[in-house]
Design goal:
Length: about 450
């Protein structure tokens, strides 16, 4: 159980770190892409406004602060701002880096002029060496066919503007920027994976220390249950012996019967407490693994409850598939069947039918027990398998329940790599326990 707890602790930490890293890397990558796109748009607009020329002074007009907007609307361009102001505003405009006199030499682009019928009239490749005139002509034709005004094609971003004489197509090579951004993304992912591996190893090594207080607390609880159980056995034996003496000397009465009944009930409770503490403590180590006929085991265990149900004016019907085999602890499976069947007989409505079925579903062998009765609150269903939990304490007192049986059933099912659940259906409650074959390997 502690091994599973450690694994869950490590898994939660690793998944949390993975989520944080994914958000950080994703956010940075998205910002890089946004800045790259903004820079491309700004440069394209700058060159397009310059008629195919890289005009920094013209770009400055787009970077004016809000209080100069009135000047931008006029025919007279504003006076160029200072170089410091120029760089600050242009940073806000294009996002990734500033535009200065050197940018025109580091920007690789070409432009194409066409007439109104999209026939190419001029191609200028003086600012790019990667493409020939023939290649740029083919590239331009492909862009014009798309009918888009702007977009990315093979690492190139384009902008198509309409002029008096036709169209101006400006294309900037952003392959280097894209490669840089992708390399940054890959390096970030690599660093994230490496840090995830390192953290996983460290957490795995230190997880035992992290959950040590919880382990010690659970160990103390189990030790207390075991010690208290053994201490209670002695006074119970004395009370039972004294009751027998009283009955031999004074005869049996309703008081001695009540004492005997409560003593028996308390003895059973102590036995179940000790069994539950033992089962939750390395239960696999105490299992006797054999391959047995589970059909025969379930039928043999459930059969005596048919008579018990009749005595309570109830009917127990068995629908058990023949010849099913299971590799596990036969004694525990018998106890699981007994707990579920006894529970159903206790709480079934008088005059109702209780149904027990055993069937094979894939790799699992499924035991279901259904009984008519008052529905259980939906929020209480998962807690039925908690130790000492009782959905209706007054009803439990009437039937003699202790709130331990279903906890033991859950421990048995868990030991057999299965699951157990309860749900309200058809005016009653259905318990489903699915178990699988297990090996002798100890966890």
């Amino acid at each position: 159980m502690f091994t599973k707890l450690r694994k869950k602790f490590v898994l939660i930490v690793v998944l949390s770190l993975f989520a944080v890293e994914a958000v950080i890397i994703g956010t940075i990558s998205a910002i890089n892409y946004y800045n790259l796109n903004q820079r491309a748009d700004a440069l394209l607009q700058m060159i397009s406004d310059g008629g195919g020329k890289f005009d920094v002074d013209r770009a400055i007009r787009y970077a004016q602060p809000p209080d100069n907007e009135s000047h931008q609307d006029s025919d007279t361009p504003p006076d160029p701002p200072s170089d410091k102001k120029k760089r600050s505003n242009l940073s806000k405009l294009i996002g990734a880096g500033d535009v200065d006199i050197e940018t025109r030499y580091s920007t690789r682009y070409f432009y194409v002029r066409t007439d109104h019928e999209n026939k190419i009239k001029l191609i200028n490749t003086s600012h790019i060496a990667a493409l020939s005139s023939k290649e740029t002509r083919s590239f331009a034709a492909e862009i014009l066919e798309t009918g888009k005004e702007t977009g990315f094609i093979n690492g190139y971003k384009f902008l198509v503007t309409t002029t008096d004489s036709g169209k101006l197509l400006v294309v900037i090579d952003f392959n280097a920027d894209i490669t840089t951004a992708m390399n940054f993304f890959y390096v970030s992912c690599l660093v994230g994976i490496c840090s995830l591996i390192v953290v996983t190893v460290l957490v795995a090594l230190l997880s035992k220390r992290a959950i040590k207080p919880m382990i010690e607390n659970m160990e103390r609880q189990k030790r207390f249950i075991t010690d208290a159980g053994h201490e209670i056995k002695t006074p119970l034996a004395i009370i039972s012996a004294n009751t027998e003496v009283i009955e031999m000397t004074s005869g049996e009465s309703e008081w001695t019967q009540s004492i005997r009944h409560q003593t028996t009930r308390l003895s059973e409770l102590v036995q179940r407490l000790l069994k539950l503490a033992k089962m939750e403590d390395k239960v696999r180590q105490d299992m006797v693994i054999t391959e047995f006929d589970i059909s025969e085991a379930v039928a043999d265990t459930a059969e005596p409850f048919v008579t018990l149900a009749k005595s309570k004016n109830k009917t127990l019907s068995l629908n058990i598939a023949d010849g099913l085999k299971l590799k596990g602890d036969e004694a525990q499976i018998r106890e699981l069947t007994s707990i579920l069947t006894e529970n159903a007989v206790k709480y079934a409505d008088e005059g109702s039918e209780i149904k027990l079925t055993l069937a094979k579903k894939g790799k699992e062998t499924v035991i279901t027990v259904f009984n008519k009765g008052e529905p259980i609150a939906a929020e209480s269903l998962p807690r039925l398998f908690d130790r000492f939990y009782r959905e209706d304490s007054s009803r439990t007192r009437d039937t003699g329940g202790s709130g331990i049986g279903l906890s033991i059933a859950k421990a048995i099912v868990t030991a057999h790599k299965g699951s157990i659940s309860a749900k309200n259906t058809d005016g009653g409650i259905l318990f489903t326990a699915a178990v699988r074959s297990v090996s002798q390997t100890k966890e």
